Protein 1
Amino acid sequence: MKEAYARLQEFDQNTPFKFGSLDTTLEPNTSVLKNLLRELKLKLVEAESLRNMVESNFKKASVEQAQVESDGDIIMNAPSSTFQKQDGYSTPPRVSLSTEKHLVLLQGMLDRISKQVASVESNVMEQEEVVKSIIQSSHETVTSSESIVDGIHQDIEHFDDELSELTAMTAETIAEDNRLDIEYQKLQKEREDQEIELQKLMGCLEKLEKEREKDESDLATLSTALTAYMEKSTMSPPSSPFIPEDIVVALEEQITPLIRNAIKPHIEILRSELEQEITKREMETSSTLSPIFTVTHQALQSVSNATSRK
């Protein structure tokens, strides 16, 4: 029994790890193990105490019987001090009937206690194996959990690397967007300048149109004066009365196409120059913005792909 108790103590002290360091999910099992160890210790202590008490009573009865007077009840000749040890227990001398009954009862009690102690020792060994199995299973669970945690740490480090790369790409994209904003503002200003220039050209065109109308009016006046002069210089009377409006209409029909044909090339040249200038500006704007928009699109696509992988 003492060996079982010592083995239980040694097992309790030499467990692979303390219960407090286990995972929280194993706390119910550890509580059961602690209670089981505590209960086994108490049973061993109680059994040892009962055994000591029985042996003490047995020895006391033997001593008392040895001191009884030899009046016929004494059937024991050997002195009480000469006890023989068999199987770890004291073998008492032969005593009287009443004392023998008492000793038989004590011997039976001692046998029952010995059986209980043997049963307790067997239970201790079985429970010791159960405890070892549970602790080993818990240790394997903790080891598996540590592997999972290591894998999670590796995933976190990999995610940190990707996040750093994504942050760098985002910073580059922001810088590119700022550059594009500056370029766009520059192009917007150029477009506004072109619109202002176009307005100036349109003003010049309107001015030319007004000058053309003035020229036509002057030509009409000259035509009227010329007609009047020619009529006054003729010797023959006019076959019909002089009507200035008719002469103006006739001259206008002849002079207007001439003036229009004279001004039309200049207007066409001006219009062609305006169209070329506008086309040139549009091509420059398109060639400048197209690569920028392409780079921006690629950067945004990379950011979107990196985010979707997460």
Protein 2
Amino acid sequence: MDLLRIPNPVPNTPPSKAQGLVDRISAAFRDLPDSRKPGNNTKYSMHDAACSAFSVFFTQRPSFLSFPRNLERTTGRSNVHSLFGVHHVPTDVQIRNVLDSVSPAEIAPLIEAVGDKLKDEGSLEHYRVLFGTIPLAMDGTDIYSSESRIHCPSSHVTHHSDGSVLYRHIAMTPALVAPGEPRVVALPPEFVVPQDGHAKQDCEMAAGTRWIDRWGSHYAPWGLCE
């Protein structure tokens, strides 16, 4: 179990660049709006729920909270506690319940800021390929799919020939990639959702076009290629 212990910080050691970024993320999550009414359902703060969800990018484990909880049992601390200052680690179901009311628009500026920080520090230079461009991969992915009646006004609806109906939540997820680089840099997503004033159902191509309209001027100077 000694291999799993989180080492104590070395005295007088300056914080790493990553820790500064983590601190910024943690601070942003403290400002998330909380629409819950006071009561037992507020045991987990918006900050703790959001940071616990974000920690999955650090733990790299298929089971969402098994690794930090095992660490907590054996060492009294977990990556979620030490990295983000989380007081209570919720389950994945509790995280979804707490964060369900948060609009993606609240998170997009943070994702943008993380990418900007990486670029400003030169951490994206090794992503550059032909003519100094950075490849941008953009594809749609289902984040929810159900043939039951469980859906919401944001669901994409597909009517099948057999009479069944499929409800989906779809996101366009742009990311910076590079050959031989196992890590990708996520950029703000765009969601396939019904658009005001449009009779036709939204689609991935339309969402991709909206993303370019919204973010193209910001990322074009980076030298991205799709």
Protein 3
Amino acid sequence: MKDNRKLKRRVRNSYAISTVSIALVIFLLGSVGYLLSVAVNSSRALQNRAMLTVELARTAEPEQRESIERQLSAKEYITSVEFSSKESKAEDEAFREMFGEDFEKVLGENPLLDTYEVLLDGAVVEAEQIDELVSELRKMKGVSDVIVPLGVVEKINSTISRIRTVLWVFGGVLLLISLILLNNTIRISIYSKRYIINTQKLVGATKWFIMRPFLGSALWQGVLAGVVAAALFALVCWRLGEAMPEFGTLTAPSTAAVIMAAMVVGGVVISLLFTTFAVNKFVNMKTNKIHLY
């Protein structure tokens, strides 16, 4: 009687350990996927902040200004073109605090220039295109100068590429290690029932008849592990959203929902797949080798 209780306790403990293991692995993989999504969205935000400033000459005519704006707007890699007058710049509070309220009286004029703030699509534009654009703008009538941060697009694209590579490599290594560990964990849980499997074989049970209860148990184990992983993921996202509100703006709520659904599906697939492999191994094993495994 005591032996039966111990056996049942061991089976329950083995089932619980394998379920928790699956849940934690799925949670980690889902978290890496979410971080990859955040990194991609962050990279797009950075790419869309690549900007250059076109300073207009003081003698620029309205027609020249309109011509410059039309040519800028026609470029497919330019996201937006915003005009900023020297009067509006002079009224800026931060500028006045830095240079004083009466800087125009001291200098006798407004020393600032009218400008166009040009926002580039960093995901599309190439460094050569920026160089060509700057050269073209500087030759235009009405343009005083063009200011562009040196190497901004190359630096952004290089940084983004490195971040993506690191996350993909990390995710791939984590996936490989996790699958190996899960395979061993589930195989160990099936190992404790190898004699039951062998007994069923000896009395003439078919492979499907032997595997069916194991697969049914694996199905519910996968669902449970997936739900636990999804709940833990939702809790972490909620806590992160409270601690860092800006973090929640980097991905759409639908992304988190898709990842949570994938966790449940992944839990079922992983549990069924490795259970099938483990049970199939013992079903096909010769009777005289069962005790040697």
